[in-house]
From TrEMBL:
<dbReference type="InterPro" id="IPR027843">
    <property type="entry name" value="DUF4440"/>
</dbReference>
<dbReference type="Pfam" id="PF14534">
    <property type="entry name" value="DUF4440"/>
</dbReference>
<feature type="domain" description="DUF4440">
    <location>
        <begin position="32"/>
        <end position="146"/>
    </location>
</feature>
<dbReference type="InterPro" id="IPR032710">
    <property type="entry name" value="NTF2-like_dom_sf"/>
</dbReference>
<dbReference type="InterPro" id="IPR011944">
    <property type="entry name" value="Steroid_delta5-4_isomerase"/>
</dbReference>
<feature type="signal peptide">
    <location>
        <begin position="1"/>
        <end position="21"/>
    </location>
</feature>
<keyword id="KW-0732">Signal</keyword>
<protein>
    <recommendedName>
        <fullName>DUF4440 domain-containing protein</fullName>
    </recommendedName>
</protein>
Amino acid sequence: MMRLPLLAALTWMATATAALAAPPSPADDVALRQLGAAADAAWDAKDAARMATYYATDASLWVGGAGGEQQGRESVQAYFQRAFAGRVGDLRHVSEIRSLQLISPDTAFTDVLVRVEARQADGTWKVVRRFNNVSLAAREAGAWKLRVVRAYPIG
């Protein structure tokens, strides 16, 4: 199982590399935030193929309570195809970046609060699930991609 070593690596990066971590450049900050917004939009549209394009070729995705770790972009796409096929109602995915740090010039560590919200009959949105996402993004072919994503249900 890769989950334990990846979790250990994420924990180490979050705690032991504080002296190495730095805010991203303005351009990287914009690009990383756009990556998150684009992934939210793909999730909202139930577009698994587009969602997968935001993940690195060798990405690793684990969503708590959703059955196992996905390895590689194709596996990530298949996961989202299954998840979107079973989705009922008008839902949206809202990501709030709480921390964004570069731990190397080509690797970013993010801590993101994610809300899944359902549209109510009166047009308002109600939170139905919350996740703490701890992730690494990496440059791949000049663009930021999600490399490791761990989504822990909260509340």
